[in-house]
Amino acid sequence: MSVSTLHSRPRVTAVRRVVVSALLTVFLAAGCKSPLDTSVAGGGVVKTVTSGQDWSASNKAEPTINAKGKQSAPAQSAIASSSVTKLAFVPGSSTKVFASAITQGLFYSSNGAETWTQVLSKFNVFDFVIDPTNEEHIYVAGQSTAHARVLESKDGGKSWQEVFNDAVSQNSARSIALNPNDVRQVLVGLNSGDLLLSQDGGQTWSLIQNFQDSVQQISWPTPTLLYVLTRVKGLYVSRDAGRTLENISKPLIDLGVWRKNLPTEPPLPSGDQTEIVKSDLPSSAVQTFYRLAVHTQDPTKIYVSADNGVFSNSDGGRLWSYLRLPLRRTENSAVRAVALGDQNRALYVGVANTVYKSTNEGQAWQVTAIATDAVINYILVDFNVPSVAYIGLTGTRY
Fold first, then answer.
1. What structural domains does the chain harbor?
2. pTM score over 0.70
3. Which long-range contacts (CB under 8 A, 24 or more apart) does 108-113 make?
Protein backbone atom coordinates (compact mmCIF):
# COMPACT_ATOMS: atom_id res chain seq x y z
CA MET A 1 0.00 0.00 0.00
CA SER A 2 1.18 3.49 -0.72
CA VAL A 3 0.25 6.70 1.08
CA SER A 4 0.75 10.04 -0.63
CA THR A 5 -0.09 13.55 0.51
CA LEU A 6 -2.75 15.77 -1.01
CA HIS A 7 -2.99 19.40 0.12
CA SER A 8 -6.48 20.62 1.03
CA ARG A 9 -7.17 23.85 2.88
CA PRO A 10 -10.39 23.76 4.95
CA ARG A 11 -12.54 26.88 5.03
CA VAL A 12 -14.10 28.26 8.20
CA THR A 13 -17.18 30.45 8.15
CA ALA A 14 -18.95 32.40 10.88
CA VAL A 15 -22.28 31.43 12.38
CA ARG A 16 -25.13 33.93 12.23
CA ARG A 17 -27.48 32.97 15.04
CA VAL A 18 -29.04 30.05 16.89
CA VAL A 19 -32.57 28.69 17.13
CA VAL A 20 -33.50 27.68 20.68
CA SER A 21 -35.40 24.62 21.86
CA ALA A 22 -38.90 24.58 23.29
CA LEU A 23 -40.18 23.73 26.77
CA LEU A 24 -39.59 20.09 27.72
CA THR A 25 -42.15 17.64 29.01
CA VAL A 26 -41.22 14.22 30.43
CA PHE A 27 -43.56 11.35 29.52
CA LEU A 28 -41.92 8.70 31.70
CA ALA A 29 -39.93 9.33 34.86
CA ALA A 30 -36.21 8.70 34.51
CA GLY A 31 -36.23 6.73 37.75
CA CYS A 32 -38.36 4.01 36.14
CA LYS A 33 -35.97 1.29 35.06
CA SER A 34 -36.46 -1.24 32.31
CA PRO A 35 -35.44 -4.66 33.67
CA LEU A 36 -33.10 -6.96 31.79
CA ASP A 37 -33.38 -10.73 31.72
CA THR A 38 -29.65 -10.93 32.52
CA SER A 39 -27.21 -8.60 34.24
CA VAL A 40 -25.30 -6.38 31.84
CA ALA A 41 -22.17 -4.83 33.30
CA GLY A 42 -19.34 -4.90 30.77
CA GLY A 43 -21.34 -4.18 27.63
CA GLY A 44 -23.41 -6.20 25.18
CA VAL A 45 -26.62 -5.50 23.28
CA VAL A 46 -30.14 -4.71 24.50
CA LYS A 47 -33.27 -4.57 22.35
CA THR A 48 -36.76 -3.08 22.47
CA VAL A 49 -39.84 -4.13 20.49
CA THR A 50 -42.07 -1.57 22.26
CA SER A 51 -40.71 1.71 20.87
CA GLY A 52 -38.29 2.09 23.77
CA GLN A 53 -40.70 1.59 26.66
CA ASP A 54 -38.73 -1.44 27.86
CA TRP A 55 -35.49 -3.17 26.90
CA SER A 56 -34.13 -6.71 27.25
CA ALA A 57 -30.65 -8.20 26.84
CA SER A 58 -29.95 -9.89 23.50
CA ASN A 59 -26.59 -11.59 23.95
CA LYS A 60 -27.06 -15.31 23.37
CA ALA A 61 -24.64 -17.30 21.22
CA GLU A 62 -25.73 -19.21 18.14
CA PRO A 63 -26.29 -22.86 19.22
CA THR A 64 -23.79 -25.41 17.96
CA ILE A 65 -24.42 -28.99 16.82
CA ASN A 66 -22.11 -31.72 18.16
CA ALA A 67 -20.97 -34.88 16.34
CA LYS A 68 -24.10 -36.73 17.49
CA GLY A 69 -26.35 -34.07 16.00
CA LYS A 70 -27.38 -32.69 19.39
CA GLN A 71 -27.83 -28.96 19.74
CA SER A 72 -25.95 -27.17 22.51
CA ALA A 73 -27.77 -25.47 25.38
CA PRO A 74 -28.25 -21.68 25.10
CA ALA A 75 -25.11 -19.82 26.20
CA GLN A 76 -23.95 -16.23 26.44
CA SER A 77 -22.04 -14.90 23.45
CA ALA A 78 -18.72 -13.12 23.96
CA ILE A 79 -20.58 -9.96 22.93
CA ALA A 80 -22.26 -9.92 26.35
CA SER A 81 -19.10 -8.65 28.04
CA SER A 82 -17.85 -6.58 25.10
CA SER A 83 -17.88 -2.83 24.63
CA VAL A 84 -20.05 -2.46 21.54
CA THR A 85 -18.91 0.32 19.21
CA LYS A 86 -21.46 0.05 16.38
CA LEU A 87 -24.59 -1.77 15.21
CA ALA A 88 -25.83 -1.89 11.61
CA PHE A 89 -28.37 -3.76 9.53
CA VAL A 90 -27.41 -5.59 6.39
CA PRO A 91 -28.79 -3.29 3.64
CA GLY A 92 -32.42 -4.12 2.91
CA SER A 93 -32.89 -6.36 5.97
CA SER A 94 -34.51 -5.87 9.36
CA THR A 95 -33.27 -9.11 10.89
CA LYS A 96 -29.64 -9.37 9.75
CA VAL A 97 -27.50 -7.30 12.13
CA PHE A 98 -23.77 -6.79 12.62
CA ALA A 99 -22.18 -5.52 15.84
CA SER A 100 -18.57 -4.47 16.39
CA ALA A 101 -16.74 -4.56 19.71
CA ILE A 102 -13.48 -3.64 21.40
CA THR A 103 -11.14 -6.68 21.74
CA GLN A 104 -13.84 -9.09 20.50
CA GLY A 105 -14.04 -8.10 16.83
CA LEU A 106 -17.25 -8.44 14.82
CA PHE A 107 -20.49 -10.35 15.47
CA TYR A 108 -23.35 -11.28 13.15
CA SER A 109 -27.00 -12.12 13.86
CA SER A 110 -29.42 -13.44 11.26
CA ASN A 111 -32.44 -13.29 13.59
CA GLY A 112 -32.68 -9.80 15.00
CA ALA A 113 -30.10 -10.26 17.79
CA GLU A 114 -31.79 -13.36 19.20
CA THR A 115 -28.42 -15.13 18.78
CA TRP A 116 -24.95 -14.04 17.66
CA THR A 117 -22.06 -15.60 15.76
CA GLN A 118 -18.54 -14.18 16.11
CA VAL A 119 -17.13 -13.65 12.60
CA LEU A 120 -13.92 -11.80 13.58
CA SER A 121 -12.00 -12.18 16.84
CA LYS A 122 -8.93 -10.71 18.58
CA PHE A 123 -9.34 -7.36 16.84
CA ASN A 124 -10.37 -3.98 18.25
CA VAL A 125 -13.14 -2.91 15.86
CA PHE A 126 -14.16 0.74 16.21
CA ASP A 127 -16.23 0.96 13.03
CA PHE A 128 -17.36 -1.07 10.04
CA VAL A 129 -19.27 -0.54 6.80
CA ILE A 130 -21.26 -2.92 4.62
CA ASP A 131 -21.28 -2.58 0.85
CA PRO A 132 -24.85 -1.45 -0.05
CA THR A 133 -24.62 -3.42 -3.31
CA ASN A 134 -23.25 -6.65 -1.80
CA GLU A 135 -23.99 -7.72 1.78
CA GLU A 136 -21.07 -10.18 1.74
CA HIS A 137 -18.61 -7.33 1.25
CA ILE A 138 -17.56 -5.72 4.57
CA TYR A 139 -14.77 -3.41 5.77
CA VAL A 140 -13.79 -3.09 9.43
CA ALA A 141 -11.65 -0.28 10.88
CA GLY A 142 -9.76 -0.81 14.09
CA GLN A 143 -6.52 -1.76 15.77
CA SER A 144 -4.32 -4.80 16.20
CA THR A 145 -0.83 -5.02 17.74
CA ALA A 146 -1.04 -1.26 18.44
CA HIS A 147 -1.37 -0.39 14.72
CA ALA A 148 -4.28 1.13 12.82
CA ARG A 149 -5.64 -1.49 10.43
CA VAL A 150 -8.47 -1.95 7.96
CA LEU A 151 -9.66 -5.44 7.05
CA GLU A 152 -11.91 -6.53 4.19
CA SER A 153 -14.16 -9.56 3.82
CA LYS A 154 -15.81 -10.58 0.55
CA ASP A 155 -17.67 -13.59 1.96
CA GLY A 156 -19.72 -12.17 4.83
CA GLY A 157 -16.96 -12.51 7.43
CA LYS A 158 -15.82 -16.07 6.74
CA SER A 159 -12.37 -14.82 5.73
CA TRP A 160 -10.51 -11.51 6.02
CA GLN A 161 -7.64 -9.75 4.31
CA GLU A 162 -5.78 -6.62 5.40
CA VAL A 163 -6.06 -3.60 3.08
CA PHE A 164 -4.45 -0.97 5.32
CA ASN A 165 -1.81 -1.11 8.06
CA ASP A 166 -0.45 2.16 9.44
CA ALA A 167 3.33 2.10 9.89
CA VAL A 168 3.07 4.28 13.02
CA SER A 169 2.42 2.38 16.24
CA GLN A 170 0.00 3.40 19.01
CA ASN A 171 -2.63 4.38 16.46
CA SER A 172 -6.06 3.08 15.49
CA ALA A 173 -8.54 3.35 12.63
CA ARG A 174 -11.61 4.90 14.26
CA SER A 175 -14.06 5.41 11.40
CA ILE A 176 -14.80 4.26 7.86
CA ALA A 177 -17.29 5.12 5.09
CA LEU A 178 -18.00 4.32 1.43
CA ASN A 179 -19.00 6.63 -1.38
CA PRO A 180 -22.69 5.74 -1.95
CA ASN A 181 -22.17 6.05 -5.72
CA ASP A 182 -18.85 4.21 -5.96
CA VAL A 183 -18.06 1.62 -3.28
CA ARG A 184 -14.45 1.40 -4.44
CA GLN A 185 -13.95 4.82 -2.84
CA VAL A 186 -13.24 4.18 0.85
CA LEU A 187 -12.60 6.85 3.50
CA VAL A 188 -10.85 5.99 6.77
CA GLY A 189 -10.27 8.27 9.78
CA LEU A 190 -7.49 7.57 12.25
CA ASN A 191 -6.98 8.41 15.91
CA SER A 192 -3.96 10.47 14.82
CA GLY A 193 -6.27 12.74 12.81
CA ASP A 194 -5.45 11.43 9.33
CA LEU A 195 -8.31 11.20 6.85
CA LEU A 196 -7.33 8.71 4.14
CA LEU A 197 -9.01 7.97 0.81
CA SER A 198 -8.70 4.91 -1.39
CA GLN A 199 -10.02 5.11 -4.95
CA ASP A 200 -9.46 1.42 -5.66
CA GLY A 201 -11.02 -0.56 -2.85
CA GLY A 202 -8.06 -0.32 -0.47
CA GLN A 203 -5.16 -1.10 -2.79
CA THR A 204 -3.67 2.42 -2.51
CA TRP A 205 -4.36 5.30 -0.11
CA SER A 206 -4.00 9.09 -0.21
CA LEU A 207 -3.95 11.52 2.70
CA ILE A 208 -6.83 13.98 2.32
CA GLN A 209 -6.45 15.90 5.58
CA ASN A 210 -4.88 15.73 9.02
CA PHE A 211 -7.13 17.27 11.66
CA GLN A 212 -4.64 16.91 14.52
CA ASP A 213 -7.58 15.35 16.35
CA SER A 214 -9.11 11.88 16.52
CA VAL A 215 -11.65 11.22 13.75
CA GLN A 216 -14.71 9.93 15.61
CA GLN A 217 -17.10 9.33 12.73
CA ILE A 218 -17.45 9.74 8.97
CA SER A 219 -20.83 10.04 7.25
CA TRP A 220 -21.03 10.05 3.44
CA PRO A 221 -24.76 10.44 2.68
CA THR A 222 -24.44 11.61 -0.95
CA PRO A 223 -21.62 11.39 -3.51
CA THR A 224 -20.63 15.01 -2.86
CA LEU A 225 -21.79 15.65 0.74
CA LEU A 226 -19.45 14.41 3.44
CA TYR A 227 -19.35 14.88 7.25
CA VAL A 228 -16.31 14.25 9.44
CA LEU A 229 -16.74 14.41 13.21
CA THR A 230 -13.58 14.86 15.28
CA ARG A 231 -13.30 14.36 19.02
CA VAL A 232 -12.34 17.89 20.14
CA LYS A 233 -12.49 20.23 17.14
CA GLY A 234 -15.97 19.06 16.18
CA LEU A 235 -17.81 18.71 12.89
CA TYR A 236 -16.44 19.34 9.41
CA VAL A 237 -18.51 19.32 6.23
CA SER A 238 -17.43 18.92 2.62
CA ARG A 239 -19.71 19.61 -0.30
CA ASP A 240 -17.22 18.47 -2.93
CA ALA A 241 -16.47 14.88 -1.82
CA GLY A 242 -13.65 15.86 0.53
CA ARG A 243 -11.62 18.25 -1.62
CA THR A 244 -12.39 21.09 0.82
CA LEU A 245 -13.53 20.78 4.44
CA GLU A 246 -15.22 23.44 6.57
CA ASN A 247 -15.58 23.36 10.36
CA ILE A 248 -19.19 24.23 11.22
CA SER A 249 -19.16 23.58 14.97
CA LYS A 250 -17.37 26.66 16.32
CA PRO A 251 -20.37 27.96 18.35
CA LEU A 252 -20.66 24.61 20.12
CA ILE A 253 -17.07 24.93 21.30
CA ASP A 254 -17.12 28.69 21.97
CA LEU A 255 -20.26 29.77 23.82
CA GLY A 256 -19.21 33.38 23.35
CA VAL A 257 -19.74 33.01 19.61
CA TRP A 258 -23.14 31.44 20.24
CA ARG A 259 -24.19 34.16 22.70
CA LYS A 260 -23.01 36.92 20.35
CA ASN A 261 -25.12 35.59 17.50
CA LEU A 262 -28.34 34.98 19.41
CA PRO A 263 -31.27 36.97 17.95
CA THR A 264 -31.87 40.23 19.83
CA GLU A 265 -35.37 41.04 18.54
CA PRO A 266 -37.89 41.40 19.98
CA PRO A 267 -36.11 42.76 23.08
CA LEU A 268 -37.15 41.81 26.59
CA PRO A 269 -39.22 44.43 28.46
CA SER A 270 -36.26 45.12 30.75
CA GLY A 271 -33.89 45.42 27.83
CA ASP A 272 -31.68 42.76 29.46
CA GLN A 273 -31.36 39.47 27.59
CA THR A 274 -28.82 37.86 29.93
CA GLU A 275 -31.26 35.43 31.53
CA ILE A 276 -32.78 34.20 28.27
CA VAL A 277 -29.29 33.71 26.88
CA LYS A 278 -28.43 31.49 29.83
CA SER A 279 -31.55 29.39 29.35
CA ASP A 280 -30.81 28.94 25.66
CA LEU A 281 -27.26 27.65 26.15
CA PRO A 282 -25.81 24.49 27.65
CA SER A 283 -24.11 24.97 31.02
CA SER A 284 -20.66 24.61 29.43
CA ALA A 285 -19.02 24.49 26.01
CA VAL A 286 -18.41 21.19 24.24
CA GLN A 287 -15.16 19.48 25.25
CA THR A 288 -15.77 16.13 23.53
CA PHE A 289 -17.89 15.20 20.50
CA TYR A 290 -19.22 11.64 20.31
CA ARG A 291 -21.69 10.86 17.53
CA LEU A 292 -23.46 12.23 14.46
CA ALA A 293 -26.89 11.31 13.09
CA VAL A 294 -27.90 12.39 9.57
CA HIS A 295 -31.48 12.66 8.30
CA THR A 296 -31.87 10.03 5.57
CA GLN A 297 -34.20 12.10 3.36
CA ASP A 298 -32.64 15.51 3.97
CA PRO A 299 -28.93 14.96 4.68
CA THR A 300 -28.41 18.64 5.47
CA LYS A 301 -30.36 18.04 8.69
CA ILE A 302 -28.04 16.66 11.35
CA TYR A 303 -27.80 15.89 15.07
CA VAL A 304 -24.56 15.93 17.05
CA SER A 305 -24.06 14.44 20.50
CA ALA A 306 -21.42 15.70 22.92
CA ASP A 307 -20.35 15.75 26.54
CA ASN A 308 -22.80 18.56 27.35
CA GLY A 309 -25.89 17.50 25.39
CA VAL A 310 -27.31 17.08 21.91
CA PHE A 311 -27.59 19.69 19.14
CA SER A 312 -29.43 19.94 15.82
CA ASN A 313 -28.80 21.84 12.62
CA SER A 314 -30.58 22.06 9.29
CA ASP A 315 -28.84 24.77 7.26
CA GLY A 316 -25.25 23.70 6.78
CA GLY A 317 -24.00 24.72 10.20
CA ARG A 318 -25.17 28.32 10.52
CA LEU A 319 -28.13 27.88 12.90
CA TRP A 320 -27.63 25.41 15.78
CA SER A 321 -30.34 24.37 18.24
CA TYR A 322 -29.63 23.04 21.72
CA LEU A 323 -32.11 20.26 22.60
CA ARG A 324 -32.43 20.40 26.37
CA LEU A 325 -32.85 17.01 28.07
CA PRO A 326 -34.82 16.65 31.33
CA LEU A 327 -31.77 15.80 33.43
CA ARG A 328 -31.43 16.07 37.17
CA ARG A 329 -28.74 18.51 38.25
CA THR A 330 -26.58 15.68 39.55
CA GLU A 331 -26.87 13.62 36.35
CA ASN A 332 -24.14 13.24 33.78
CA SER A 333 -25.00 15.25 30.65
CA ALA A 334 -22.69 13.38 28.24
CA VAL A 335 -24.68 12.10 25.25
CA ARG A 336 -22.67 9.18 23.89
CA ALA A 337 -25.28 8.05 21.34
CA VAL A 338 -27.79 9.67 18.98
CA ALA A 339 -29.94 8.08 16.26
CA LEU A 340 -33.00 8.67 14.11
CA GLY A 341 -35.88 6.26 13.53
CA ASP A 342 -39.49 5.96 12.33
CA GLN A 343 -38.69 7.55 8.96
CA ASN A 344 -36.68 10.29 10.75
CA ARG A 345 -39.65 11.24 12.95
CA ALA A 346 -38.17 9.85 16.19
CA LEU A 347 -34.95 11.00 17.81
CA TYR A 348 -33.17 8.70 20.28
CA VAL A 349 -30.28 9.78 22.51
CA GLY A 350 -28.39 7.92 25.22
CA VAL A 351 -27.05 9.42 28.47
CA ALA A 352 -25.27 6.97 30.79
CA ASN A 353 -27.79 4.08 31.08
CA THR A 354 -30.86 6.16 30.14
CA VAL A 355 -32.66 6.37 26.78
CA TYR A 356 -34.40 9.61 25.77
CA LYS A 357 -36.83 9.52 22.85
CA SER A 358 -38.58 12.49 21.26
CA THR A 359 -41.01 12.68 18.35
CA ASN A 360 -41.24 16.49 18.32
CA GLU A 361 -37.68 17.80 18.02
CA GLY A 362 -36.96 17.68 21.74
CA GLN A 363 -40.02 19.54 23.03
CA ALA A 364 -41.04 16.43 25.00
CA TRP A 365 -39.16 13.26 25.90
CA GLN A 366 -40.00 9.67 26.77
CA VAL A 367 -37.37 8.58 29.31
CA THR A 368 -36.41 5.00 30.18
CA ALA A 369 -33.48 3.94 32.36
CA ILE A 370 -31.97 0.53 31.60
CA ALA A 371 -30.96 -1.63 34.55
CA THR A 372 -27.25 -1.79 33.82
CA ASP A 373 -23.99 -0.32 35.05
CA ALA A 374 -22.76 0.02 31.46
CA VAL A 375 -23.12 3.13 29.27
CA ILE A 376 -25.25 3.47 26.14
CA ASN A 377 -22.71 3.80 23.34
CA TYR A 378 -24.68 3.19 20.11
CA ILE A 379 -28.36 3.17 19.08
CA LEU A 380 -29.77 1.48 15.97
CA VAL A 381 -33.45 1.89 15.06
CA ASP A 382 -35.27 -0.31 12.56
CA PHE A 383 -36.60 2.05 9.88
CA ASN A 384 -39.07 -0.56 8.61
CA VAL A 385 -40.41 -1.53 12.05
CA PRO A 386 -40.10 1.63 14.20
CA SER A 387 -41.07 -0.18 17.41
CA VAL A 388 -37.78 -2.15 17.20
CA ALA A 389 -34.45 -0.66 18.26
CA TYR A 390 -31.09 -1.89 19.52
CA ILE A 391 -28.53 -0.45 21.92
CA GLY A 392 -24.83 -1.23 22.12
CA LEU A 393 -23.40 -0.85 25.63
CA THR A 394 -19.87 -0.13 26.75
CA GLY A 395 -18.22 -0.60 30.10
CA THR A 396 -15.07 1.30 29.24
CA ARG A 397 -13.87 4.59 27.77
CA TYR A 398 -11.96 4.18 24.49
1. 3-61+76-394 (2.130.10.10)
2. yes
3. 108/156, 108/157, 112/47, 112/388, 113/45, 113/47, 113/58, 113/390
